[in-house]
Amino acid sequence: MTEVQGVKFRLQDYIERRKKAGDPDEGDGYAFSGDLKALRTMRRLKPVELAVSASVRVFTTTVRNQLLGGAVLVTEKQFPRLHELGVRCAKMLGVPEQQIYVVQALGSINAMTMGTDEEAVVIIHSAAIDHLSEEELLFVIGHEFGHIQNGHAAYLTALYLLVNQVGSIPLVGWVAAPAILALNHWSRRAELTADRAGLLCCQDLEVATWTMAKITLGSKVLYEQLDLEEYLKQLEEGQKNIGRIAEFLQNHPYMPKRIEALRTFAESAYYKKQLGFDGGTTKAAMDEKVSEIVKVW
After folding, report:
1. Burial level of 110, CB count in 10 A (0-12/13-18/19+)?
2. 86: three-class secondary structure by DSSP
3. Taking the model in full, what pTM does it have?
4. How does pLDDT run across 28-81, given as a tens digit for each residue?
5. 80, 142, 169, 269: which could join 198 in a potential S-S bond, CB 3.0 to 4.6 Å?
6. Which residues contact 90 (CB under 8 A, 6 or more apart)?
7. Angle CA(22)–CA(36)–CA(57) in degrees, nearest 5?
8. How do strand 99-103 and strand 120-125 relate by DSSP bridges?
9. Domains of the chain: which residue ranges?
10. Do residues 131 and 109 touch, judged by C-beta distance below 8 A?
């Protein structure tokens, strides 16, 4: 149980309220339509639903303790500034305050969301805190909260376990391959939804795009030498045959695609309205353009 703005929340209560309010498959207003479409399709695929169901059981009984056994919980007394960033993001997105853990991961600027609709957690690598400013961490935290807000947690957990545990066993890995491909297809689109949530939290497109570039580069020495526009020219490489094949097997779109997709979202009427401005492209037009940017085939 957590408290935000004097009101007590429980994640499951929040999810139930959303279900009563409308179609749970429709996500939040900023969600990428390609994410919602892929999510609806996956829910009709038996191998995926079986994998998700099994993964949730494994996470609840075993993996959660393994992951969090070496992590440190963020609280008001422990890492108070990071805790405050989490509170700010929760208020901006209109969700309950989420549990955030910090885990040591040398050289990896990353974060992830795992768990279930009832109990999801955000895990941030300590290197991310060393490399990123508070404004940039707002984007990272908002990205992960976006996964939770849009019902991604259980599917992300299934993908993580299939790739890192079940997928490492040859026979079981072969059986799990269809589920992994389907989850990868969805995950590439879910990342775009989560990126939008990150931007809604930090409310600064330049901060958001530089955060994404830094995560890719991972070197404090090289940050000042990076030309973002030059880097984005690599977008064309991701459209070529070899690039397409490699991306098809990944669970994230190439970063130049994600940055260009986020820039497109920043021109939308939805995002401009959050900042108090008029105008902007419709959601349908925006998502059509984003679909073209991130398509693999």
Report:
1. middle
2. helix
3. 0.86
4. 689 999 999 999 998 888 888 888 888 888 887 777 787 778 899 999 999 999
5. 142
6. 4, 96, 97, 98, 145
7. 85
8. parallel
9. 2-294
10. yes
